[in-house]
Every structure is written in structure tokens, then in C-alpha cells.
Design brief:
This protein has 392 residues and is α/β, with parallel strands linked by helices. The chain is built from 14 helices and 13 strands. Helix 5 packs across helix 9, helix 10 packs parallel to helix 12 and helix 11 packs antiparallel against helix 12.
Length: 392
């Protein structure tokens, strides 16, 4: 049996007036996802345990079958793992965003610094490490706006806010808080002058003007998918977070040329590489970031487009390609909602579809929030959804 998870990050939404009170998923042309809903089984799943934030880290742990209440320590350790950063005891990694602050650096204008290119960001992070790095702090370049800062002997018990949660808002009330938070705030303030110097001498087009530190945590201890379910597998994603979670789960991270984590990502390549991995392995987790990024940007047009691209260029190709295997099962799901109206994540349950159908679980007329919400099937603990997929 071959298993594949097709995860469209942040795809579910709320009804939008300019779409005739439809959600982007309802407005989009999605024949392949609709086929999976009609001919398969549908339901709703709660991916966010009570009291936890609906971050992609928490929600994807749930979908992969790991109870976040037991295994979640923070976002940055997962990203550091995929970047090959070796963490010693007492090291606390932080996510280090390149951001654009506006209104005299008091407002979060853009959490992605204009989706800065990986190449431009690498030079800037290297320059920041030369000026801010020392025996206590080290900066590591990642992809686009997503990077890592490691604080040796640091404090992980701080309140830090994801920058995509405060788009367009004053940053004053969301700066790091708690013991030794003044050290992080000082780093962020000092970074602004250093970035200004770098931009002035290296690249006048860079929109970044500050770093933003968040997502800290200690290295988690997790059993692998092989140990838990006796299966081998791979993870296909553009972002370090998802590949890092996969590494801790014992999955092989696969690099797909042209995978960007945005609407211009290589959808066909992800599908092609996933099918190739399944020739020798049991399981693939295929993650597409673009609907989430579109939601954070507040773009209705881009979100509808990203959903249609996901349906045609990923789901459609996977449905065709899986037919070469005698037995297979496909899970279509999102980790959380990223509503256009909020421009950040929300914690409501999300729809899922499994094809071919599971005995006793009905399908729906199409794949949408309102249709699937009518389903009688609900998984209250997200980390148990994978047991349905695997037939346990």
C-alpha cells in the first residue's frame, strides 16, 4: 500500500463579499479535489489542541500524527534541523525573519520583506552575522525571508509573536517579552542600522529593514514514522519548517528545483518527485505553501489562483500518477485556515478528503468548507487522522 498526504497550507477561509459570499475554495475551479470528495470520504478535523496557537508547526505535527501537546517545543528547532545546524545542549534557536517595518519602523508592513530572494538574503544574513554574531549569537541563512539565529545559553521561555500575525499593526505591544527579552529587542534594534548600511552599499532594491526574532524552542524528542507505523517515507516542501518536522519524523526531505513556497512554486515538480519517491517508499507528505502566503498577503486573487494551481497541477497529477500502484490511499487536507479577512491563521477545524473511500465514511458533492462541514464525520484530535489514512 502506498500513502500520500496532499496538504495545501492555509487553504480554507471565510466567505468573501467580492466573491459573492463564497470562500476562495468555493470560488476556485477545483475538479480534482471535488472528485476526491464525491468519490471518496470526507470529514472535518481539529488540528489545534485547546490552548495552543494555530501555527503551521503545531498543525502539521498533528496531521503527521504527533500530538503537539507532547512533542511541540517551538518552531525554530525544526527549521534548524533541515538547515543542518548542529545544536549543543543549552542552544536555543530562534526564527529570524527579514521584515519591512513602516511608519518610522513602528508598524509591521511586510513580514516577508517583499519575499526577498534567497540569494539577496544570504548576503545580508552573512553581513548581520559579522556585525551582530559572537560567541553567544550566531545567524544562519535560510530561504527567502526565513532564517535562524541561535542563542547559546539563551532563554526559550519568552513570549514572542509571529510577524505574520501582526501585518499592518503597531509592533510595540508584540515585541519579545519575559526574562532577558531586552537582549532580543536590542538585537532587533541594532539590526536596523546594520541592514541600512548593507542596503546602501550592496543592494538598493532590498525591502528588508529589520530582523524579527520568534519561534524559539529546545530540540524535541520524537519517535519516527518507521518506529510508530513501520513505514518509510519522504517529505516534499519548499520551507525548512516542513522538511525539519519530516526529519524528526524519520522522513527524507526532498529538494525540488523551483520550489519557492510562493505562488510561483514548481507544482508539477512536487507531484513528479512525490510519485518517484513512492516507487521505493511507503509514504510521502507533499506540502504546498502558496495558499497560506496568499492569505497572509490579503490577496483574494492570489489565493484563488493558488488553490486552482494546487488542484490542477498537484492533485490532478497525483490522481493520475497513483494509478500505477496496485493499492494506494490519498489524504487531501489543510493544516489550518488562513482567512483573507484576518491575514493570519485561525483555529477552526478544517475539511479533509480520503480517496479511495473508507468504509462507513461518506463523501460530499464537492470539496469546500460548507459542504464538508455537513459531514457526520469529525476527528476531534488531529494527530489521530493519520491512523485513518493508514487503516489503523
Amino acid at each position: 500500500m502506498k500513502y500520500i498526504v496532499l496538504l495545501a497550507d492555509g487553504m480554507p477561509d471565510y466567505p468573501i463579499e467580492e466573491l459573492g459570499n463564497k470562500t476562495p475554495l468555493e470560488a476556485a475551479h477545483t475538479p480534482n479535489m471535488d472528485f476526491m470528495a464525491r468519490e471518496g470520504s470526507v470529514g472535518m478535523v481539529n488540528t489545534v489542541p485547546d490552548g495552543m496557537s494555530p501555527g503551521s508547526d503545531v498543525c502539521n505535527l498533528s496531521i503527521l500524527g504527533y500530538d503537539p501537546r507532547k512533542y511541540y517545543t517551538g518552531r525554530a528547532p525544526f527549521e534548524a534541523a533541515n538547515m543542518g545546524i548542529k545544536l549543543a545542549e543549552g542552544d536555543i534557536p530562534f526564527r529570524c525573519n527579514l521584515v519591512t517595518l513602516g511608519n518610522d519602523r513602528t508598524v509591521m508592513d511586510d513580514f516577508s520583506a517583499g519575499h526577498v530572494s534567497t540569494e539577496d538574503a544570504a548576503g545580508l544574513i552573512s553581513f548581520l552575522d559579522e556585525r551582530l554574531g559572537n560567541e553567544e549569537f550566531k545567524f544562519y541563512p535560510g530561504k527567502s525571508y526565513r532564517h535562524i539565529m541561535v542563542w547559546k545559553g539563551g532563554n526559550e521561555k519568552l513570549k514572542c509573536t509571529p510577524p505574520h500575525d501582526i501585518s499592518g499593526q503597531e509592533i510595540k505591544g508584540y515585541l519579545p517579552q519575559g526574562g532577558r527579552a531586552d537582549i532580543l529587542n536590542d538585537l532587533m534594534n541594532r539590526s536596523q542600522g546594520i541592514i541600512k548600511e548593507y542596503v546602501g552599499t550592496h543592494n538598493g532594491d532590498l525591502k528588508a529593514n529589520s530582523i524579527w526574532l520568534w519561534g524559539q524552542g529546545r530540540v524535541p524528542v520524537m519517535p519516527t514514522m518507521k518506529e510508530r507505523f513501520g513505514i518509510t517515507g519522504s517529505v516534499i516542501a519548499a520551507v525548512d519548517l516542513m522538511k525539519g518536522i519530516g526529519i524528526f519524523a524519520g522522513l527524507t526531505p526532498i529538494d525540488v528545483p523551483g520550489a519557492t513556497g510562493y505562488v510561483d512554486t514548481n507544482y508539477e515538480g512536487k507531484a513528479e518527485y512525490a510519485l518517484n519517491e513512492l516507487k521505493d517508499k511507503d509514504f510521502v507528505y507533499l506540502h504546498v505553501e502558496s495558499p497560506d502566503e496568499s492569505g497572509h498577503n490579503g490577496s483574494v486573487e492570489l489565493k484563488v489562483r493558488s488553490i486552482e494551481d494546487f488542484d490542477r497541477r498537484v492533485v490532478g497529477n497525483i490522481l493520475k500518477g497513483m494509478k500505477v500502484f496496485p493499492e494506494y490511499r490519498i489524504l487531501l487536507v489543510s493544516d489550518h485556515r488562513t482567512p483573507i479577512a484576518l491575514r493570519t491563521h485561525s483555529a477552526e477545524p478544517v475539511p479533509f478528503a480520503i480517496y479511495p473511500p473508507l468504509e462507513g465514511i461518506e463523501g460530499g458533492e464537492c470539496f469546500s468548507e460548507r459542504v464538508v462541514e455537513k459531514s457526520k464525520f469529525f476527528v476531534p484530535e488531529g494527530h489521530k487522522l493519520i491512523e485513518l489514512l493508514l487503516g489503523n
